[in-house]
From TrEMBL, chain A:
UniProt record, GO biological process: tRNA methylation
PANTHER family: TRANSLATION INITIATION FACTOR EIF3-RELATED, TRNA (ADENINE(58)-N(1))-METHYLTRANSFERASE NON-CATALYTIC SUBUNIT TRM6
Full protein name: tRNA (adenine(58)-N(1))-methyltransferase non-catalytic subunit TRM6
Family designation: Belongs to the TRM6/GCD10 family.
InterPro entries according to UniProt: TRM6
Species assigned in the record: Geotrypetes seraphini
Gene Ontology CC terms: nucleus; tRNA (m1A) methyltransferase complex
Automatic annotation (TrEMBL), chain B:
Upper classification of the organism: Eukaryota, Metazoa, Chordata, Craniata, Vertebrata
Keywords: Acetylation, Methyltransferase, Nucleus, S-adenosyl-L-methionine, Transferase, tRNA processing
EC number(s) from the headed UniProt entry: 2.1.1.220
One term of GO molecular function: tRNA (adenine(58)-N1)-methyltransferase activity
Native source species: Geotrypetes seraphini
Gene that specifies this protein: TRMT61A
Protein name: tRNA (adenine(58)-N(1))-methyltransferase catalytic subunit TRMT61A
Amino acid sequence: MESSQSARDVIREGDFVVLKRENVFKAVQLQRRKKIIFEKQWIYLDNSIQQFYGSTFEITGGGNLQPKRKLEESNAETKEAGADNRNIVDDGKSQKLTRDDIEALKEKGIKGQEIVQQLIENSTTFRDKTEFAQEKYIKKKKKKYEAVLTILKPCARILAMMYYGREPGKICQLRYDTLAQMLTLANIHAGSKVIVMETCAGLVLGAVMERMGGYGVVIQMYPGGGPVRAATDCFGFPESFSDTLHEFPLSKVNSLLSRKYSPEISSVGPNDKLSPEETSNGCLSRQQMAEKEFGSEMVLETNESEAQEVTEVSTGELENQDSQDQRNAKDKKDNEERKKKQDEKRKKEMQAAALLREKNADGLIIASRFHPASLLLALLEFVAPSRPFVIYCQYKEPLLDCYTKLREMGGAVNLRLSETWLRNYQVLPDRSHPKLLMSGGGGYLLCGITVTKENARLDTSGLDVQKTEEPARKKQKVEEFQS
Amino acid sequence: MSFVEYGEFMKEGDTAIVFLGHDSMFPVKLQHGAQTQTKYGVIRHSTDLIGKRYGSKVTCSKGGWVYILHPTPELWTMNLPHRTQILYSTDISLITMMLELKPGSIVCESGTGSGSLSHAIIRTIAPTGHLYTVEFHQQRAEKAMEEFKEHKVDHLVSVKSQDVCKSGFGVVNIADAVFLDIPSPWEAIGYAKSALKMQGGRICSFSPCIEQVQRTCQALEAHGFTDVDTLEILLRVYDVRTISLQTADLGIAAEDESSAGLGQSAVCSNPTQRTLQFKSAVTPREMVGHTGYLTFATKSLF
């Protein structure tokens, strides 16, 4: 147990890892001799294999990595610093090194650390700057010239921060603290049976699976041809986790609820053909999807990466052509394989249907680009009484609808519409304050707890009176106030 | 039931939550023969509760009714007997995610306090993780252990009664995460570091005052922690209300007004006064403006 634990802390080929530089993250799958672009630099990750997760590396010439030990900050020389900036004039001449000089230094392959030192030595104003200003100067230059990166093991914290920073549009602007609230409010834990409906690239699904640790059941409800799990794949879950994961098409929820469900109706239909790579047919296509996900941003960063993408694609196509050469033989095989996959898919769908039909799920999480009201009312049918549910929406108005409808239908108590604000702080001696920028919004949550539903709604005493959303007295007050 | 496993039916010995209405609930321990008083009358455990389904509506003696809910760490946080100030679910959520807790995690915590965070941690790290929690107040430590037993989670937690700043957590190199909620966390950073695994781990310290944060950050840096990050999370709760606003009389005839585009939402018209209704998410007049600063950091390899 202990040895397997430590074995998992070593970076291995094929692992899904997260690269970190400053506060920028990027998720990649580690492959030998594979060029990766990160923060405008080409990198080969080969040298990180067999190192521990959390290791920091320096990027050397040719994009190789070199393990970096902690620096002995040798600022032994007596520090000289000014008291204020009354005599510092911005004449643009304080740096004696020219652009070309710096470029030359870089080309010689001189370490970033030394370049920074040279910049300091050649700055006429450095000594007159205050101690704080000196620190800030060094920090800024270090950021620019010292190319270091840390390789981290993926987890919900890192991936949620990464997605919110890089591609908030893909996760409906779900900020990481909001995701954290969802997991807690829905009481996600090992051994439960959870229904997840998300269009957040599989990030919410991954976060739920991480909290369940491979114990229990997750049923992902998906729109369209198949579930999107690009972000889920980045977690690098062990194979065993996939046994706990089920999926069911949203388009069949209604027939399942009205007991007219049959897996045969449309699973052979156009959905499969429409987007074959969207369906989760085995490991290969999942990898391709993960690449697709991050491919788009790589293109943004540079054209070269596009070229790389193309070569990758074309090798894939070559293989395809290979198969086309022996068409007759393989076509049959392909058909068989497709049929096998469809059968497999149908079998999984029926399993998921059976799980849903028990109507005893322990929780429901919704975070999608769709209007949540109809989703909520339909999916809540599958949840057992006295279980929490959470709905995320980027906007609060649709959640007002959900709230009103839940009140009309009954079957839920302790409803709460909320939002969290997140504030970051700079904490430094004598310079502590909230960070300049904070996020404007991370979405809204509606949460509640299911209860047994009355057959006929009773408008009797007790709860209802105090629960009506708008006590008569208050209504009057508002009106009085207006008049 | 237990706090780490859902049960369908209420059993003797269970802790259940009696839900009377929003912001009005309390925990109750189910016992044959016992009775619980509510403002809607009495509930008899043997006949009204035990054997019933969680989430059921239970009619009290005076005809009013309540719902009985399955306990969760979040409901417990809202209902537990306070022995100290406690952490609420908003902070707990962020702590759980930022400490990267999951099934199997080994966690150190101090102080145990009223056990609000402890229950949430135990829920998340079950069934294979463990919580080592340290509380220097003897009575509080004992009370916490009693509660863990009652909630059937005592196999997942060890409570030690000692001063974490003087004696540490009593474990070395086994934790994936450490949480500190004590008045002088900077004095415990060294012990936190040695409690964490060799390969590293995460730490969080909760402090209400910025001066405490300052000293903690300094201690963290001095002990070689990296990625030191201080956060604050605030919860905004909204009331969902239907609001009616009167429309001003501009001397326009009623028919013209509705054609002017104002008639979209429900209009309650009477001869003299016209009002427009809309749904709104109303912020309460007061909200919690500050609980504490959360400082996170990573113990790295070297």
